Amino acid sequence: MVSRAKRLVRGGICALALAPLMHALAAAPAAENSGGWGLLNMPEGVTSVSREIHDIHMVVFWICVWIGVLVFGVMFYSMFAHRKSRGHKPATFHESTTVELVWTIIPALILIVMAFPATRTLKELYDTSEADLDIKVTGYQWKWRYDYLGTDVGYMSELATTQASVYGQAPKTQFYLEEVTEPVVIPVGKKVRFLITGADVIHSWWVPELGVKRDAIPGFVNETWALAKEPGIYRGRCAELCGKDHAFMPIVVNAVPEEEFNTWLAAKQADAAALRELTEKTFTLEELMAKGDEVYGRSCASCHGASGEGIPGAFPALKGSAIAQGPVADHLDIVVNGKPGTAMQAFGAQLSEVDLAAVITYERNAWGNKTEDNIVQPADVFQFKQER
Amino acid sequence: MAGSPARKTALRLALAVPVMFAFAVFVMPPLYDAFCEVTGLGGKTAGRYVNEAPAVDSERMVKVQFLTTNNGTMPWEFRAPAEAVRLHPGESTRVTFYARNVTQHDMVAQAIPSVAPANAARYLHKTQCFCFNRQPLQAGEAAEMPVVFFVDPELPAAVTTITLSYTLFDVTDRQGAGVAAVN
Amino acid sequence: MAHGPAKGIRRWLFATNHKDIGTMYLWFSFTMFLLGGFFAMVVRAELFEPGMQIVRPEFFNQMTTMHGLIMVFGAIMPVFVGLANWMIPMMIGAPDMALPRMNNLSFWILPFGFTLLASTLFMEGGAPNFGWTFYAPLSTTYAPPTVNFFIFGIHIIGASSIMGSINIIATILNLRAPGMTLMKMPLFAWTWLITAFLLIAVMPVLAGAVTMMLMDINFGTSFFDAAGGGDPVLFQHIFWFFGHPEVYIIIIPAFGVISAIIPTFSRKPLFGYSSMVYATAAIAFLSFIVWAHHMFTVGMPIAGELYFMYATLLIAVPTGVKVFNWVSTMFRGAITFETPMLFAIAFVVLFTLGGFTGVMLAIAPADIQYHDSYFVVAHFHYVMVAGALFSSTAAVYYWLPKWCGRMYNETMGKVHFWVSFIGFNITFFPQHFLGLAGMPRRYADYSLQFADWNMVSSIGAFIYGASQLLFLYNVIATIVAGRKVSDPKIWEGAEGLEWTLPTPAPYHTFSTPPAVK
Prior knowledge:
The structure holds 3 protein chains of 3 kinds. By secondary structure, chain B is of the alpha+beta class.
């Protein structure tokens, strides 16, 4: 005797097993980048490659759905119709060469059908020839560097979200963990080749809307490309585990019309010249501290702590440290040249003279640190770099 | 209980263990290197080119682009003389990179080359390269580091730009004679 | 010969009896399952909402790494060795395992290996934080000082697996009852035979990989260090040459379990026995030639990508055969839905879903978007949790009455199933969405658009985690005070030698070989 409730429960097996599948089915065409519950599918993106990838993804997805409906359909039918509780007597068959051949050959054919578009897209994805612009992308623990080849424009792009925001002491804004100090700018409608490498561990440069993901491997150079068809801001992330702040090195690509791009590039080159001028200037302690606070939060705080407390056993504290309160030359040396064999990078190549002077001054005065030579000027940094 | 046939089976199986271990440690790395060299996998270039140079193909122009990267904690100044050179396949070119040890310590560096696209790697032949040897520099010292190379005329027609990238590593604390054999 | 077990602790410390050792394996793996599960709870609690609330990012990485290592090497692999120890001699009519003393050793070094591994959590620098795939140079040049403990731990675990495998092969090849030809063996024995060969082939490769790491870290070699002419990508090739067979090592014994349970509760013989054997062998063979599909974004030449894509797609064929065979076994049977059957049916459905996403991942250009995202996390949890864990849970419910002569509480079993099933899907189904929308795996924190589905996933994880405590309670309650059963054939539709033995199974199995028709 089967009660109605029991039947319902048993029917529920079917319903529940299928529910997620059906959910995906219903949701498949959605995927506006508006956030939250609606984010269910791969973005179509703005390059021909990303769109082809999206199409293949959808084709394979629907093939899988239909195979699923067929196979699970038969299974759920048996579960319903061939229950012992309904008095079904078991058959005894246990093989059929014909049937088994059929379900070996048909899936193989379906796979061959899938392989064709996949091969075509892969070939396109690998065709990096005849690019209009080359950008070198270097992965660092935990930030990206972009160099525009053939110009002297090159800069670090770091997480702009503050530690306070991460640790809940400040509100999380719209682009929490998706904002950087400076995005990589590319011209719309131009083929941009990305030359990707890593400076320490392996990272992976992933921008879903460009259909680009390529590993950044130390000692090796990888290449890929994108041709953005629409202007916009495209946000991506590091996709290969690279240590502590793996989740905190986002990518922001700003695709702008070609003219705007040219203006931007010219301005960047002028900026580089202006920065050299700034290096000559003498700053007040207040100016340096304000700038230093900002640089510290961006480049140092994730290891040495927001208040210079460090992480015991992994990263030394700067609060009360001998270096931050000792001779300027030693302090300059470790910040500019790094410390070999540790996670302390050589920031001399990553930060400008102004930023270096500011952050060193900041470390020598913040958190109760006290020392004789408490101010370091950009010119001091410049001279230090020359003298070495 | 455990008869000797079982022991025999076990012994035979146990033999497979050191064999597979040795396969992983002694066979896979050189096999992989050989494979890389043939296919250019990972953009690895071959070592010093020793054969006769082929004829120059003056019909074709190839752009060879230079990249320099300092590995994480390497503070030296390191740069290429130009963004790129243009040359005919078969034509030998000498390019001089510049490095300066900006620290107050004597250091030793090793440059590691890599080529993109990967399928061009085996068509870039170096007859002389600073990457064949380690580069020691005293505190504050600078050096000109030459590389002499040519592009094989067999280079696939689709390739118009080759990127030659050097990453500079700090190997001051390392023992041994360098990595000439694998570059 | 017919003496009982030794008294007290000696029974376990010096155990040579396959049932005692099997029991220890099962309890050990369940302990590890709870530990690895606890780490997963920490991970999901941290990911409950954006921002860092509970742990710091470096500790988060230790949690994901330890979760992966403990679940793969501590929970899933040993649970199947435990099942093999218990069931294979009973299934093939053998008195015990072929090499009982090695059996003892292979078990008892496991707790040492895992103690070594887990102790790193309390050391300076913390536990391994480079992911269970431990890619160089993050795991070499940039590793915490405890990496050496991790390496020795892996060596010990590997040695244990190899000894276990040798024992299983020696048992199956030498101790079958007269008349028990290979093609008459239950599929569980067959799948384990194949798995054991895979293990012997690839565990030494893993040992080689960690040994090369050890050399790089401590003795100045440069296998994986670009600075010395090595290649970090070589590490990935060696790792996945081990790693891909490894994932089949985890799932193939599960095929054997499911192939035992579905016929029993369908009251109909397994459909396509020989094609099941060939399909398993085919999957095992293919597992050696597809490894680089884990590396579609490292920048392989296009020919390599194409080859690995095509070869990987091929795996869908024998895997499909298995699923079709299970469904055909159920077709026109007389099906009942006891707890083991519920788990087995859930296995077929969810494992197939994991298989579908596997096909999607095999498509190299699409993998550019999927790779290292939560889509991958969802995919492998569908095959690892719903595949390997659901099947081993099914196996425990299925054989527990045979082992201890007491019946588990069916209602509680069903509740356990439904809570697990629902909790599992709430946890992992949304992770498909997260991955497709662009959330990478191993992220300690995420941007706001991922918040909703992450919260759902975390809630599901807590439900799934809690339901395992119910399982623990049910098993203990059964052993201590379950309803006594004595029918040799616990399940009406069960076939095979293990069901000809008295219930509970006697301490020594088949002292005289049974006759096999």
